[in-house]
Amino acid sequence: GAENHCTIFTIAESPLDQNVIWIGTDDGNVQLTTDGGKTWANVTANLTGIPKNTWCYHIEASNFNAGTAYAIFDGHTKNDYQAYAFKTTDFGKTWTRLVDASKVNGYALCMIQDPTEPNLIFVGTEHGLWISVDNGVNFSQWKNGYPSVSTYDLAIQEREADLAIAT
């Protein structure tokens, strides 16, 4: 179908540098420009531990470092239900895997970093909302009345410091 290997799924502009833009595609590519789109680099080869052509479903640029971004990959359409969430701090030269089946339940769908507390990270999965207070080293499922449902997108309304969740 048309949705395979020809679609940009996610775009994230750095809130710190308008020239830094991240793009993720449905054929597993992560592209980066640091000059406002004049040139692009495919940084996918620097990601390890993820099957080829796994959709890059979501990218989130950091509010604290222009070279930092978070990327979510989703392989559930190919019967791969692993959670893939990665972080780079050097413009995609290296990536660290933040979540896997030992840290969260369900495949990952979205991720967001708090705009005022850099160590606070939220991850939405097929089975709920997960939170890290130590910059992605450890994650705990957020309950407090929130059910274990597909969590498709997250946004933080900065003025009120409210987390908005799309299920």
Work out the radius of gyration. 15 Å
What is the succession of H and E elements? EEEEEEEEEEEEEE
Strand order of the largest sheet: 1-2-3-4
Show unreliable segments: none
Mean pLDDT, as a whole number?
93
Strand content: 35-45%
Structural class: mainly beta
Major beta-sheet overview: 4 strands, antiparallel
**Total beta strand runs:** 14
Helix proportion of residues, in percent? under 10%
How many alpha or pi helices? 0
Shape: globular
Q: How far do the termini sit from each other?
A: 26 Å
What tags apply to this protein structure?
167 residues, four-stranded antiparallel β-sheet, globular
Would you write up a description of this structure?
- The chain has strands at residues 8-13, 21-25, 30-33, 41-42, 55-61, 69-74, 84-88, 96-99, 108-113, 121-125, 128-132, 140-142, 153-157, 162-166.
- The strands form 4 sheets. Strands 1-2-3-4 form a 4-stranded antiparallel β-sheet, with no helix packed on it. Strands 5-6-7-8 form a 4-stranded antiparallel β-sheet, with no helix packed on it.
- It is mainly beta and 167 residues long.
- The protein has no helices and 14 strands.
What is the strand and helix layout of this fold?
Elements: E1 8-13, E2 21-25, E3 30-33, E4 41-42, E5 55-61, E6 69-74, E7 84-88, E8 96-99, E9 108-113, E10 121-125, E11 128-132, E12 140-142, E13 153-157, E14 162-166
Antiparallel strand pairs: 1-2, 2-3, 3-4, 5-6, 6-7, 7-8, 9-10, 10-11, 11-12, 13-14
Short description:
The chain is mostly beta strands and 167 residues long.
